[in-house]
Design a protein that fits this description.
By secondary structure, the chain is of the alpha+beta class. It contains seven helices and 20 strands. The longest helix has about 45 residues.
Length: about 350
Amino acid sequence: MKQHNNTDIENLGELSLYRTCIKIIKNMRIFNKYIIIFISTFFICAQCEKNEIELLNPDAKVILQHNYLIITSADGQPAQVELKYTVLGTEGENEQKTLRKTTPFIFGGENVCCSYSIKRESANGYIRHYLNRNYQPNGADYLSIKNLSSSEIEYAVIGNNKITYYDVNDLSNGNSTYFTQNLNTLLDKTKVIEQPPIPIYKKAPILYLLFPDKAPQHVCYALLEGDGTTDGGLFKAKKVPLKSPYIGDLTLTTPYTIEQIMELYKQEYENQGSILFSNYVAYTLKLQGKRYTYSLKEEGERGDRKLLYYGKIAPHQSLDNQGEIWFINSAEARYYDVLNLE
């Protein structure tokens, strides 16, 4: 029988340990292999059970309204402009409207028949509505602005969307993004503004600065304090007067002029003013210097559909809307065509 010295025994021990380690590693590789197979199979199955979209109605109809546009000349001199856009006719069908106007002027606000699709998601049964965009003549989004003059003209889009309010349950739910600390102190919990007419300036919707009679004519509330996170303090609702002559932080003795409104848009777009916002939460967070919050111009540049709330048209040139002009007064459908019909 072969004899082993102490060194041989130590070497044999190391060899045994080495073999044991190799075996463990191999087993781990086998285990990891099965883990990878399991994960792959899981994702394949998940793909097999992915959310299917069922088209319930491809062409439902709803009557909405156009937003307003104001148009001025860049040099302040009267300029001739030709407008073509779609409105709801007397027979209940869309028809093209053609106008010739002299700057400064405002147009829009008319009814228009819009087509939308009704779809159901298989995973959760949700039914959603999506605007069917149509930029052709007689289509709801159709808009052509032709500058007939030798002066540059400017346009600005003023949202004619309906003011909406938060569901009280969302504000009182401690797990909600918009949980409001002082909800029980409000005189009317149902009047916390979720979406105002777009945009707002100093807490006042531009729409109400032009048309004070369109304001709700009562005191509302908006989420104007806090950042909606547990580490920074939750939101608090603050009063926002929307009753003439008090609109937001402004006191109106007379409605704003077209030129005054255009100047606000120019400050937002040309001077990086960050003075116009699409809602009160964006306004609040931007003023606090929070990241990933945007003013109107910044927001319009970031969406899948790039929106221009302000722009210019050169002399003897036309602007034919292909999606850059928000012309249908649905706030939810601005970027992703989702339509809220509640």
